[in-house]
Amino acid sequence: MDNQENDMNDFPAGYHKSNSLGEAGRHAWSGVWVAFTTERNLRIQVIVYVVVLIVAILVQLSFLEMAMIILAATVVMALEMVNTAVEHFADVVEPRYSKVVGKIKDFTAGAVLLTSVAAVVVGLLLIVPPIVLRLVS
User: Fold this and answer.
1) pTM of the full structure
2) Residues carrying an active site annotation
3) d(CA 10, CA 27)
4) Domain covering 40-136: architecture
5) pLDDT tens for residues 98-123?
6) H/E stretch holding 59
7) How far is CA 123 from CA 59, 69, 70, in A?
């Protein structure tokens, strides 16, 4: 038996590792769905994302500009999910109030805030100029 097989036997009881790429994908999409259905901020971000995409299509942004908007929005939503995971994990590890846990939660929330502000700036820089040009001409 090689070292990799030995390592597989060292997982704690109750641990489950996906047996296939398909199973891993199902678990990942399940996480996205649970986050979407339970996290208000993520639902708001998805709604804003869809509206921005519609506007971007209407003003005929280039593929590169669309890619920038998609990337910015996806980073915000992914970080929101990481923030949610950290908050849930922190609540399990330390169910009572803790200043340290509070700071950890503030750090991840701050990361979401920073990426959200950056995404808004990217969106405005890309979408506002074509709208202004259409209004002026």
Assistant:
1) 0.81
2) 80
3) 22
4) Orthogonal Bundle (1.10)
5) 999 999 999 999 999 999 999 999 99
6) none
7) 12, 6, 10
